Amino acid sequence: ANDECENNSKEKKILIKLEENTLIIANNGNPFSKGGVESLMYSDLSPKVNEENKVGQKGLGFRSVLNWAEEIYISSYDLNIKFSKKHSIDFLERLIEQNPQIRERLVEKTKEKYPISVLRCPELVEDNSLKKESQYDTVVELSLKKGVKKKIVGQIEKELIPEIIVFLHKVEEIEVLTDDLHFSIKKITEDDYIIVERENFITNEKEEWTWNILEDKGILKGEKGKSKNYELKIAYNPDLQPETNKLYTYFRTKVNFPYPVLAHGTFELNSNRNDLSEDEEGFNQLLIDKLAS
């Protein structure tokens, strides 16, 4: 959603709403393109793959939500599609009906009754009235599996801390609404500092933090000849201690960073976006060296 909140005159805002057995993630910004849909169906085909320093450059983040969802509905401008196990099974059965030899081949290859990927089978939806939170340009709605709601609430409480918005340069506000929570995190960006505000709509409490920003941008030359644009940022305030001492690549990773500042770099991450990958060009080590200097 951070990447999609660009090139739009509307408020750069993300809504995360958990109600009953549905998780809604909505934002204003760029529509889902043909390439965006293809990236859901096939990993590593994200339209951002040739755009450096994009959060969703690898095209893998969305695929992880399948662990939570029975059905995924996406509405973005004129596009309305669904993904579900039921539809993928129906699609496979129609293929087998047209060509019974497919069943024979599947029996030879797997013991699974319906070996088909949910994300390979999008279902076009003509009725856009299904879209909730229609004031947003793009809405992703997950019909949740049983037993995952509590886990999602736990992740919201753990991950959606005020510091999360510091390095999301295309997002100005995140609003969160669940059965027990309703708050917003806002960011005001100035030349060399940012102000982060958290407002609790239940208790009417407001908090504010100021972070000074140091920034470095340029081009890295890798060990095997490739080059990439890089970005490093340090957010600091002598009177503030970060909630967690972790490295950021836009979002917080699980990489330890034992210093009293927030640090962001355009590091190469593994598919879960939590750890640094072993990139053959050595870009990560080059960034770490620059960060240390």
Mind explaining what this structure looks like?
- By secondary structure, the chain is of the alpha+beta class.
- It has helices spanning 34-41, 85-98, 101-109, 149-159, 283-292, and strands spanning 13-19, 22-27, 69-76, 79-84, 123-124, 138-144, 173-177, 182-189, 193-200, 205-221, 227-236, 246-249, 251-256, 262-265.
- It has a 14-stranded mixed beta sheet with strand order 5-4-3-6-2-1-7-8-9-10-11-14-12-13.
- Residues 46-50 and 54-59 have low confidence and may be disordered.
Keywords:
293 residues, alpha+beta, 14-stranded mixed β-sheet
Per DSSP, what share of the residues sits in E-state strands of 2 or more residues? 25-35%
Q: So what's the overall shape?
A: globular
**Tally of alpha and pi helices:** 5
* N-to-C span: 32 Å
Query: Averaging pLDDT over every residue, what do you get?
Result: 88
User: What is the total tally of β strands?
Assistant: 14
What's the helix-strand series?
A: EEHEEHHEEHEEEEEEEEH
Helix content: 10-25%
Task: Report Rg.
Answer: 21 Å
Strand order in the largest sheet = 5-4-3-6-2-1-7-8-9-10-11-14-12-13
Unreliable stretches covering 5 or more consecutive residues: 46-50, 54-59
The secondary structure category is alpha+beta
Q: Main β-sheet, in a few words?
A: 14 strands, mixed
